[in-house]
Each structure stands twice: as structure tokens, then as C-alpha cells.
Specification:
The protein has 280 residues and is α/β, with parallel strands linked by helices. The chain has one domain: Rossmann fold (3-Layer(aba) Sandwich). Helix content is 39%, strand content 19%. An eight-stranded mixed β-sheet has the order 5-4-1-6-7-9-8-10, sandwiched between helices. Strands 2-3 form a two-stranded antiparallel ribbon. Helix 6 links the parallel strand 4 and strand 5. Helix 1 packs antiparallel against helix 10. The termini are far apart. S-adenosylmethionine (SAM) binds next to loops.
Length: 280
């Protein structure tokens, strides 16, 4: 039984880092005319109304996008991210926050393809509605890791795989590593983006160690925290682990991460990491 709804969290500090990294990678792949495929293993419903009861409950967007939205001095990468959110809010009032499938939908070209998976029936229905007329896309109501694995490798031989589970099931921490190993065997040149929450730091230490020992090379990690590690408060930090990052990615994120941490800090506190876990 799935109870997680991302609408409660849309646009929070974790979404900012996640979607910024995603946009950097999409834009990088677009530098070549050749088509590519975007796989989203845990898509969510696609778009979030920030005035909905869900989003209003804890107003988590106020820990993220709201703090950046109207800044005049954004570094280049964050400006690109905010511009993307702005295209979904044409009257310059922040009412909608796009999820990962909507971001990809907006940025990808007519000759690229999107493969989206969402297991929750209601979320899948909403997502399917949004993509009903988008001929580039296929939307699956199946386990996203199993389905994506069956679809790899893409005939285009170029692609991004976003793995963004809610980690409601604790076995997800192990499953994502197994998935990455199997997916990498089938599609070694793919760009893989794995999101993780820091709720219990030990789980992330184990996740990092498993990836470092997996035999997969070329792995970089970015993390942003707005509270010190503690198991008493829920998610305090979150990060993105990127396999085969575009060669420009680390510099782009490094150029804006300090700025982001300063803008999103809580009571003067923030932490960040930008590390190559495994070299090329
Ligand atoms: C963190 S949310 C995704 C947010 C989305 N990627 C975004 O950036 O807007 C995780 C989603 O995964 C869905 N989900 C949970 N288990 C799944 C599974 N095994 N396969 C596919 N989707 C799943 C949940 O219903 C939820 O909508």
C-alpha cells in the first residue's frame, strides 16, 4: 500500500537540488542534435499546485523554490533552473511546481523520448492525463525499476535515468544499488541520477559504500543539508548521486552550491558536499 504523495513536499529544498542537477544533465545532452531518452523510474503525478491542500499542509516549498524564485543575483545554473520553473508560472506568481516528468517534457525536443513509471494508481492517472497527447512519451503503471531495466538499453544509446524513490520501503536503499548495477551492465554509457534523503545517516553511508564497491566507475555526489544530522526530525539533508556525469556538471553545481546553501539555510545552518566518489 503506497501512501506517499510528493505533493506534500513539492518544491522543497530537496527538489531544488534534484531538479537543478536534472536540468543541467538534460541541457548537456541537448548540446548534440542526436536524440536521447529520459527514463523516470518514480515519476510522481507530474505537476503540483502549490495552493492545494497537500502542498499547503507544511508549505515545504517555502524551504526551497520560494527562497530562490525572485532573487536577482542567481548563479547561471540556478538561473536556468528558476527559468524552467518560471515557464510553468507565466504570470510571474509561483502557483505551480513542475515535477521531474514535466521538467523533462518542457525541455526535451520533438525527436527525444520519455519513459515514465509511476506505481500509485491515482498519481499514475494524473500523469497519464498530462502526457496523453505527447507522442514522445510512454507512461507505465508498474514498478519503475523493473520496467526500466526491461527497456534498457535505448536504441538511441544516449539517455538519462532518474531514480527518485520515496524510500517508504527500507529495502529501497538496497534495491536502488542492485538496479544501478544491473542497469549499468545493460547501458554502461547512460547518465544515472539517484536521489537520496538523509533521514538516518548510516543508511546513506552504506549506500555510498555499496556504490563505491560496485565496480561502477565515474560517480559524483552532491548534497545539501539545512539541519544537522539527527534521527529525530525526518529529512535533514538530501543528495544526488550521478553516474557518468556530464564533464561540465561538477563545475556548474560547484559554482552555485554555496549560493544555494546560503539562501536555503535554516537559523544560519546549512551543509553541502560535492565529491567524486569514484573516478573515471
Ligand atoms: C519522490 S516521488 C517522485 C517525485 C518526482 N520524481 C519528481 O521529481 O517530481 C516518488 C514517487 O514514486 C512512486 N512509487 C513508489 N514506489 C514505486 C515503484 N516501485 N515504482 C514506481 N513508482 C513508485 C510514488 O507513488 C511517488 O509518486
Amino acid at each position: 500500500m503506497l501512501s506517499y504523495r510528493h505533493a506534500f513536499h513539492a518544491g522543497n529544498f530537496a527538489d531544488v537540488l534534484k531538479h537543478w542537477v536534472l536540468i543541467e544533465c538534460l541541457e548537456y545532452l541537448k548540446q548534440k542534435e542526436k536524440p536521447f531518452v529520459y527514463y523516470d523510474t518514480h515519476s510522481g503525478p507530474g505537476m503540483y499546485a502549490l495552493d492545494s491542500d497537500y502542498a499547503q499542509k507544511n508549505q515545504e516549498f517555502k524551504t526551497g523554490i520560494s527562497l530562490l524564485w525572485d532573487q536577482a543575483d542567481l548563479p547561471k545554473g540556478l538561473l536556468q533552473y528558476c527559468d524552467c520553473i518560471r515557464t510553468q508560472n507565466p504570470d510571474d506568481t509561483l502557483r505551480h511546481y513542475p515535477g521531474s516528468p514535466s521538467i523533462a517534457q518542457a525541455l526535451m525536443r520533438e525527436w527525444d523520448r520519455l519513459t515514465l513509471c509511476e506505481l500509485h494508481r491515482t498519481e499514475h492517472e494524473i500523469l497519464s492525463g498530462q502526457f496523453a497527447h505527447d507522442k514522445r512519451s510512454e507512461v507505465w503503471n508498474e514498478d519503475g525499476l523493473n520496467r526500466t531495466l526491461k527497456l534498457l538499453p535505448p536504441r538511441e544509446r544516449r539517455g538519462i535515468v532518474l531514480i527518485d524513490p520515496s524510500y517508504e520501503m527500507k529495502e529501497d536503499y538496497e534495491r536502488v544499488v542492485e538496479f544501478l548495477q544491473a542497469a549499468h551492465r545493460k547501458f554502461a554509457q547512460g547518465v544515472y541520477l539517484l536521489w537520496y534523503p538523509v533521514v538516518e545517516r548510516e543508511r546513506i553511508d552504506r549506500l555510498e559504500a555499496a556504490l563505491i564497491n560496485s565496480g561502477i566507475r565515474n560517480i559524483t555526489l552532491f548534497e545539501l543539508g539545512i539541519q544537522a544530522d539527527t534521527e529525530a526530525r525526518g529529512m535533514t539533508s538530501s543528495g544526488m548521486i550521478v553516474i557518468n556525469p556530464p564533464w561540465t556538471l561538477k563545475q556548474s553545481i560547484d559554482d552555485g552550491l554555496d549560493y544555494l546553501a546560503k539562501k536555503l539555510e535554516v537559523d544560519g545552518f546549512s551543509t553541502l558536499r560535492s565529491e567524486v566518489l569514484v573516478g573515471e
